[in-house]
Hints:
Elements: E1 7-10, E2 18-25, E3 28-33, E4 38-43, E5 49-51, E6 59-62, E7 65-68, E8 71-75, E9 78-83, E10 86-89, H1 102-107, H2 114-132, H3 147-157, E11 163-166, H4 174-188, E12 194-198, H5 203-214, E13 219-221, H6 223-231, E14 244-248, H7 249-254, H8 256-264, E15 269-272, H9 287-298, E16 301-305, H10 314-324, H11 332-354, H12 360-369, H13 374-379, H14 386-398, E17 406-407, H15 411-414, E18 420-427, H16 434-447, H17 463-474, E19 480-483, H18 487-498, E20 505-508, H19 514-525, E21 532-535, E22 550-553, H20 560-568, E23 579-586, H21 590-601, H22 612-632, H23 637-661, H24 665-670, H25 675-689, H26 692-702, E24 707-712, E25 715-719, E26 736-739, H27 742-747, H28 759-770, E27 776-780, E28 789-798, E29 814-821, H29 834-840, H30 851-901, H31 907-923, E30 928-938
Parallel strand pairs: 11-16, 11-17, 12-14, 12-15, 13-14, 15-16, 18-23, 19-21, 19-22, 20-21, 22-23, 27-30
Antiparallel strand pairs: 1-2, 1-5, 2-3, 3-4, 6-7, 8-9, 9-10, 24-25, 25-26, 28-29, 28-30
Amino acid sequence: MFVPGQRWISSAEPELGLGTVLRVEGRGVQVLFAKAGVLRPYAVDSAPLLRAEFRAGQRVAGKGIAFLVERVEIKDDLLIYRGEGRELHEGQLDDEQSVSQADDRLVGGRTDAVAQFELRLEGLQRRAEARRSPMWGLGAARIGLVPHQLRVAGIASARRPPRVLLADEVGLGKTIEAGMIIARQLATGRASRVLLLLPDTLVYQWFVEMLRRFNLSFAIYDEERCEALEQSGDAGNPFEDEQLVIADFGFLESSPKYARQLLDAPWDLLVVDEAHHLAWSPEAASPRYTMVEQLAAAIPGVILLTATPEQLGRSGHFARLRLLDPQRYGNLESYLAEADRYLALSKIADRLLDGQPLDDAQRAALAEAFHGDAVLTARLAEPTRPDNARELLAALIDRHGTGRAMFRNNRAGVGGFPQRRPEWHLLPANAVDDSTRQALLAEFHADIQQPPALIEVDYAADPRIDALVALLDAHPQDKFLLICRSQAKVLALEEALRTKSGAGVARFHEGLSIVQRDRNAAYFAQPDGARLLLCSEIGSEGRNFQFAHRLVLWDLPLDPDLLEQRIGRLDRIGQKHDIDIHILAVADSAQHVLARWYGEGIDAFRLSPADGRELLRRYGEPLTRLADEHARGDDNRDQELDALLAETRASHEQLAVLIRGGRDHLLELAASRDLHADELQQAFAREDRDSTRDAFVQRLLEAFGIHAEELGGQVLLLDPQYLSTDALPGFAEGPQSVTFARAVALAREDLPLLRLDHPLVAGALDLALSGEQGNAAFMVDDVLPPRTALLQAVFLLECVADRKLDAERFLPVLPIAVTVDTRLAERADFAPSEIALRKAGDRNIEVARYRKFLGKLVPPMLERAEALAGARGQARIDEAVGLATTALDAELSRLRALRAVNRSVSEAEIAAVAAERTSLLAALPQSRLRLDAVRFVVSADFLALR
């Protein structure tokens, strides 16, 4: 009967978990319950033990794997479970493996509270609904619903795989777009290993942005981390130790060994920021470009980010497209000729958009582009008719060369931005002494480094402090955001202000923990909170302070894009006020020279210059030299500076004309009519309107001992005082404030936005549904007529398929609830009465007393319920197959039609969709039922049975 290695469970002490038979001696057996650290001796004849046996369709777990059993083999009286291409010997089963099945627990009288059954059933239903949504993985993301960002994320996330260039202007949210794509790929299973490859100055920004906005915790890799992993005794590739990895180019360039290991590690998605720094020419490529090229050739999904307009470096732009599709973009000259052709077509598209007539040359150009398509050619006869213009534009968009590989939005096209009002606070040169003048020059030279050099600063005697205090006093009702280059400056400013101003001040710098930063930002956001937020440069990285409209520039970075990021903290879509930009500087200082270049040379305080980086490349060296000479009082400095400003201004005007002339409206239009994007926006709107979700999440968390207390303003305090598990994240520092309102989460960045895909809620739901809690219940319903007994059985319809197929968008793990009576008739219209549900918690019923009756009634009722659920499940399978067929056939037809007119649609992409269709249509019909929960509902007279 008993054999060493077999797994058993104690029916008397099920909380001990799964036991293992250690030895059998005569009439005794010893069983080790490793989970509880208990060794129990039993008599063979009377041991209260149940064999832990699993059948086909049940889930087993052990050795770090889990799968559904397809068949069971027996060897030497030991069980071997096989399924999904894996095997697990019973001795390898997890000690916490749930053994008791719902029906066994019910028949054995081991039931849970009715409320737990109700919570389990609602959890199953809500998980199925959420998993089918196109926003699964993005619901809890703390992002504003900005249309152009949702469009980019919707389109790119639907690609198989996404290989795209995100080229929005600075400040339009490329990082958010990339984060949305990453989160969606991870949530749907299309990617599991993601590599962010970044300049070292952006590592921290990306880490915080992914964690704070998308609840994604990336591991930052450097030489120290890799060495520590190697010294831990694991001889494997250190980059395979984590699924989500951030690495910077500098570290990899200085460590060829780790660069090779990075290339050898398997990845699903590669993200590279500031891709415009990857130097390439037809003759040679930089080491960084070569590294990315090798990675992009091996990794299915690639996202490149750049803010450099194509017109300011067409060969560099070609080089980036070449990384995405080297076959499509294999020749620079061919690309340039094609780009010129599409630019000409884009100008014709502008006339169609404006309803203007076309001349003969323009008609001929369109006819050539349409390759003799008779329908489109006929529409050219009356191109100003709205329906003709609409179809002609659609055809041009389909044929756009880079329209599928690149997304570029600009501020003019997006719209909705406020005006900027620069205000100079220029302090006279004679207001500072020589020592302060020298300190300002040293500060300037430190500031123009990237990252800024470390120097000691003391602002006690700095006249800018007095100007700042006067500014605060002049606008007592307004909040001010001050951004400077370093943490040391933040601390020095706070110290200097302490004795000169009574205004409330908050700090925000890299020396604070993420939690403390969020709290300080929330204090600044509160109407009665701090009036001034002192930020180091990290304050310009992804933060949203648009409730304020006054920005103080204490200093300036030598980087137009970084300046634009600073201003972009306030100058955002949805800002209700014009932006007041206060520039503090001492006349004739180096800072004054740099401010004049930004203001008079490239107009960066009033507008967002798309050519800023190019102009800095041209004039950065003479600018810093003149700034230094100006601060030192060298001769002829004014004339040279005026000449530099005039030359910069002239170049800026020339480049502006070039950029405007080369603006590709077809590229901007390409994303605006995509169905995936529309679905995503609609899903967000539905989810944010659903208030019933809030109550469910609160009940779910209460089940684990987390109490929710209303604090007002749509904020709840989650108190883990009675938390029953260590498996839920988020409570390391005690109670946690949260919100269900997106607007509140965006205004207060210390508040997580709770949705079903938030790690805390998802973790609680997984715990609730993976265990046996709530899977067996017994209740009395006084409304039922006498001699009534009903069995409510909940089955799960599951499709076992490769996660990369994302089968759950068509058939999520679906609960099918069936109710039958003792005559084996279905009672589809039955639902427990409200009064019975309310009284259930007050009734103390010893269900074990009715095991004899339950043992006779439940098996045939359950068999009938399973047959009914099977029929209903087959209907849902057929429906899912139909949905998948329709959706994928339409996608294939669309891609094949596009391929006929646009070489950017690759055969590989079409083949990937076709293979996905084949695999899904093979997997969906194999979906199967698994019993998850049962509830026995009886009339009051049942309790009299003995």
